[in-house]
Amino acid sequence: MKRKLTSILGLGVYVLAAVAGALPGCEADPGGDGAAAGKSTTGGTGSAGKSTTAGAGGKAPGGGTGTTAGENGAGGSGQGAVAAGGRAGNSGGSSAHGGHGGTAGGNGGKQGVANAGHGGTGATSAGGDSPAGFGGDETTNGGAGAGGTCERVVITVTPVVPTVELLVDTSSSMFETLPTTWSLLKAALMDPSAGVVKPLEHQLRFGFLSYEGHLASSETDPACATMTAVAPALDNYDAIDSAYTSVGASYNPSSPPFPQWETPTNYALGYATSLLLADPDAGPKYILLATDGNPNTCVVEAPKCGQDQALRAAQDAYGAGVGLMVLGVGDIINQPNSGCPASERCGNLHLQDLANAGVGAPVQPPPGCDDPTSSSCSAKYEACSKGTLTASYTPDAPDAGYPFQVDTTAADAATELVAALTSLLSGALSCTIPLDGATRTTHLRVTVGTTQRVEGDADGWVLEDDGQHLTLNGRACVDYKALQPLSVDGPCR
Known about the structure:
Blueprint: E1 13-23, E2 93-94, E3 111-112, E4 150-160, E5 163-169, H1 181-190, H2 197-200, E6 205-213, E7 225-233, H3 237-249, H4 265-278, E8 285-291, H5 307-319, E9 322-329, H6 331-334, H7 348-358, E10 404-406, H8 413-426, E11 432-434, E12 445-448, E13 451-453, E14 461-463, E15 469-472, H9 474-481, E16 486-490
Parallel strand pairs: 2-3, 5-6, 5-8, 8-9, 9-10
Antiparallel strand pairs: 1-4, 4-16, 6-7, 11-15, 12-13, 12-16, 14-15
Helix pairs in contact: 1-3, 1-8, 4-5, 5-7
């Protein structure tokens, strides 16, 4: 295999939504002062607290510190004993309530997550419950305190499942080697223990589409190819395996005469795109093309000069919202120029062009066609093109897509095919994740699996400049694609 990505078997796409709540962690004010010794007539004021900071008890200017409320004269503080004119606040916030009042002094805070405070406790006629914390005293209603909680942003994740149409070239050359390229590819996709479809059928909506080409009257003539389709769905392994097996059985490599099936990739890509656009599912959509040959067209069997039309079909698919993943196998790797005229980009070069088109990147023009209208552009004079190139080209366009190429005559072909398909399918999930607009804050906690990831770290995450997209990097991205759970929440704003 000429190009690899990290092998990942699990994937899914997530859309995030924000929910407001409250969180421990905001600063607390100390408890207020009592107005009088012992039996103060006004309770102190205070706030619900931070989880690590106690709200201080109120001090009574004329209170005593003994075991009897305020009868020992002036000068003592009201912190500590209940009977001494005020009690110290308890530490930091409660799962149910905000600040809790003291008995005759200031109020502190009990641990709080809800927005409302809890009323103070008076010895005889307490302040009672209120959205703000109340101080209480021995005889009269307490004074009002302030709620000390803050708003928390909790982000929930909802899976949006990608759809992948497996588009398999069923030209005759797929069956002409032993072991056949067809059988090796089918095993890499469909083997129940080693193939990639079975373990992923719960996470991806797989569809299946094979194409065996024939000559036809035009590039839109349905006679151009026999298309065998299985509509995309979750848990679709059995239906795909049945159809795939049936298609393969129609070509017997040991029993001539053999049928002659062609490779009209442009027609197949257009057909697959139409099916995906008609599919009502809202998730992202992709075609995974596995082909072993340079393309011809519906009208021209030879030479194999259908590159321009195939690229136009890939560009049109991308423009309509359908991505393309590319896997070259068999002859297009072993005999890259087979049947392909010198005026075209053949073999690996054509696969690279398809991969670029599949991700919306610019595509290299054929040789001598930097200006496709010039007389030096030989490709436009090929029988397939009839004087005009229809795809969009950019001279010196860089390699941007990721085509995979597997030599199916190699001893390790089976392993390489599984690795290539696994890497391609991992690309169905982006590690840039949309956030709900309500989460526009830099104070986020991001956890993938059981590991809290660090902002700005090579294996962590970054918040994009628009404040609405989070990008996972390095190990965080790898774990996310492997279906490790993702959680994102925000402390106090």
